[in-house]
Amino acid sequence: MLIHEDRLFLAEPGSRKIARALYEHVKALPIISPHGHTLASWFAKNEPFSDPAKLLVQPDHYVYRMLYSQGISLDDLEIGKAELQDARKVWRIFASYYYLFRGRPTRLWMDYVFQELFGLQERLSASTADQYFDSISEQLKKPEFLPRSLYGKFNLEVLATPDSPLDSLADHKAIRDSGWKARILPTFRPDSVVDPEFAGFQENIAKLGQQTGEDASTWNGYLNALRKERARFRALGCTATDHGHITAQTADLSLAQAEALFGAVLAGNADAFQQELFRAQMLTEMAAMSMDDGLVMQLHPGSSRNHNRKLFERYGRDVGADIPRPTNYVDALRPLLDRFGNEKMFTMILFTLDESTYSRELAPLAGHYPCLRLGPSWCFMTALKE
User: Do residues 318 and 305 lie in contact, with contact meaning Cβ atoms separated by under 8 Å?
Assistant: First the structure.
């Protein structure tokens, strides 16, 4: 077998026995995924996945960041291309360097997929690359490997997809209109319209105004546009927002200060301090909106995204150069918590890439403020250089 049934349990026999018992108790429970990195279009169209390279290599930056770190060209892996020109070649490269993933979380996950989903027993390598490619490609054509079938096979109860306010949500509407009873929900991810450093920020604000019929060039119109988009998401089942800020910094500016700051960022005149202050203010504004509409607020700070400027310029956002950084929560969250920390109707889930903050900051904060919850450790290992 590629994987051992006790692979994630402690080696000490007594502890392992308890772990087995606990796992036996929960393993059949349905999965509720509030942050699933899947596409609603998969389930709207319900079409077969094309091949293993397109499915398992090209979209997974935890896979190709390792290969890139060892000198493998992203061009050879066809990263950034809408359609692969030579999927088998890409798969062969991945297979030839699969040994690099030994002892890594990515390897645990991949071996699980190979064995449990596709029934493969022999280790992936250069010599078995074509066998794997052909076997997986053939199985992906079968009805039981269609996206909706896999949703049922994996015992999913809820799957939430992060979506931009600028997204039409047409795929979510198509899923609902199809009569399929699965719960595929949009999650409101406003980074593209609240982060002045996001590519095309000014154009995104203009589009936000056009979509909502609001004058988004004014502070009040901008906030109203965001409220309307949140309402549109809620109408399709959205229950949460998700914020991928660099830090956990929040702010609570006066109306005049917020209006002036918005004018500066919209004009493109804001410096780095003002850009961070605007992101901080928008977290507090989003919390205020959550008080009104009941959406749970999720914060994923601590990742320096697109750290490799050359890769960002060549291949675009989120191409594997996410670097963890220390994160302050106690001081950073105080402005937001001063306003909403004692509100029982507000819920905010904190995630972290900085594991050192769990016992020092996050647990004490959540142990006091009624609104705070702690999310699971966010990719502590997979976000590290593989």
Answer: yes
Is 4 inside a domain boundary?
no
Q: Residues 29, 107: one domain?
A: no
Q: What is the pLDDT of residue 318?
A: 78
> Residue 187 belongs to what H/E stretch?
strand 183-188
Residue 159 and residue 194 share a domain? no
pLDDT in tens, 137-170: 999 999 999 999 999 999 999 999 999 999 999 9
At how many degrees (to 10) do helices 129-140 and 87-96 cross? Answer: 130
Q: What H or E segment, with its residue span, contains residue 313?
A: helix 309-315
262, 324: one domain: yes
Mapping DSSP to helix (H, G, I), strand (E, B) and coil, where does residue 116 land? helix
Domain count along the chain: 3
* Domain co-membership, 131 together with 227: no
For residues 164 and 199, state if they share a domain: no
Q: Order the strands of the 31-33 sheet from edge to edge.
A: 31-33, 156-163, 183-188, 240-243, 296-299, 348-350, 372-374
Residue 226 in any domain: the answer is yes
Of the CA atoms within 13 Å of residue 99, those in its CB half-sphere come to 5
* β-sheet bridge partners, residue 162: 187
Q: Is residue 327 part of a domain?
A: yes
Total-model pTM: 0.91
For 88, the domain range is: 48-144
Q: What does the DSSP 8-state code read for residue 155?
A: T
Distance (Å, whole) CA 138 – CA 51:
9
Report angle CA 342, 189, 75 to the nearest 5 degrees: 140
Residue identified by tokens 């074509």 is: 130
